[in-house]
Amino acid sequence: MKRKHLIGAAVATLVIILVASAVASAMSPPKQHVPGVASRHDRGKVWGGSHNRATPTTGPSPSTASMSTPASAVTATATPTPTLSAAPTATPSATPTTVPAPKPSATPAVTPTATPAVTPAPTPAPTPAATPKPTAAPTATPTTTPAQTKAQLLARQKKARRAAARRAAALARREAATAARRARAARQAAAERQAGIAAAAREATAAATTAAAAPSATAAPSLAAGEYNLSGWAQALLSALGMPLSAQNVTAITAWEMAEGGNWHNSARYNPLDTTMPEPGSTAMNSVGVQAYTSWSEGLTATVATLTNGLYGGILAALRAGSSALAVSAAVGDSPWGTGTFGVWTPAATPTPAATPTPTPAPPTTPAPTPSGSAPPTPTPTPVPGATVITGQTFNTYTIPAGTHDVDYVDCTFNGGNASTAVLTLNLACYDLTFTDCTVGSGPWNGVTINVSNGNIHDITFTGCHILAAGRMGIECTQRPTSNTVGYKNMKFIDDVIEPSGEEAMSFDGGYFAADSLIDGCTINGSDNQTSPLWSGAIEINGPTYFTVQNTTIYACRKNAFNLEGPAGVNGHLVFTNDTVDYSVQKESQPTDSSTARLTELQDVNGAVFANCKFILGSAWNAGYWSNCSNNDLSTTTISGSCPAGRSMWSLDGSCTDNTMPAA
What's the whole-model pTM score? Predict the structure, then answer.
């Protein structure tokens, strides 16, 4: 029995020894690990579980260069390590045996090429399929991070939406302005109040005046008491000739009147085109025989008779077509009339029909919404003729290029300028430009300079703009020479804010034919903001005619608020409506010069109207000093405040007559 126990114990001991030997044998292969050959566990870390990918021995793939594997990690793999004879072609950069495990997205950069030849035989599963993650490789393909791409796209989309909204608003404004211009060109100027102002224009009425030399024309219309303006007389002549009242025809006759200068610019009364046809009671006003007539009807009859005498068939043919003001100008130049060809300020490219399709298709041409992979740099703003909207750009000491037209500058900033150049300059031929919500920065000279020669600049509108303080003038608009018979037209400043500049805030200088301009709803925070300004006035109008200032507020200036000078002896058709001049509010740094500052200073101004204006004297010397002014009407204007002791509210010299002043 005891022997059986001993035999059983021996057997158990033998079994234990055999089991231990088997276990030891099974564990012996890892101890024979060959240096330089990664184990399956290590390969899983380095290759991300994919044993079948092989990197070309010529170097990393193109996509590898853009991945985020640190350079130090790749360098570490290049250290020489013992390898098996089966891998003689492996380059140092392709043997990453000691590389720490990187992110799965970077694994292709470190795949060894020699590994299949040295896989240890004891390893039972050299190509496991459980760990590969095919999604790891695609994450390394973008060259730009998704966050950057998304941010850029969102920014472009936002900019595109804002630009589209501004384009729509600008297009609506432009269409409204175009409609207004057509209406203005097609109608006679409305009758103005009489109490010192001549009628701006009246519709021509048919009359039974005989025109023997005008067989196809209607009788020349006679006029009620009053005067014609340029466009009103042009329409009367076209009606008398039986010609179309198209915008191009009205423009042509108006420009012809300007070129001749009759009635308004010389002593050929009632004779805008300077005809030499005598009429009963007419007299020659020069050696050529240009006539001065006794009435508008007589002058119109003589002009019709001259044009229909058989020598001016080309002019009549161009007017009969009614489609081109330039064609009329050319016909006049080819005729014996003597004017020569003349400039027309309305662009000849604009056809007579009301709808002008040129601006409409422009919005789709703006490139803002087009993505390009990364945000494009801000382009250098170089507008070309025919462009529609330029939004959010910055310009430095900028001159509008010659020929620019139908352009809306929206939310743009203008900076720069120098001692003799404005921040923004318009001195080359351009028209139909709108500046909306723009900022004109401070400069040592003018903020905005508009210098017109022969009517080559017209229909310029500033809406909602902020004109910062300039060393000289905020806005200066000039016609040079002032004797030109075609001046600037339709300069409009609407809801703008003008900060106090060194001299005048807004200056409009030129001859009689610089006309039809508007200041509406503007705020002028002072002017002449230096101790000794050479030129002074919040608003200077020196020579231009048919000018309207309405709903505008002027705060205390160092000198005068309105500095007006008209063509002597001629109605300048200056109208001021619902304006406020408040010298009790001081916004500029220089105090009002109480010894010279006046709310109004007028010379040679005739027929101006100040309707429903409000003058607050504040620290001003008095309400106004006038010289050689007649037929001006301030009957509905109110004045509050009082002059210092010993000063009169108004100072009018002995040459002033027939002015209607405000009630005391």
Answer: 0.48
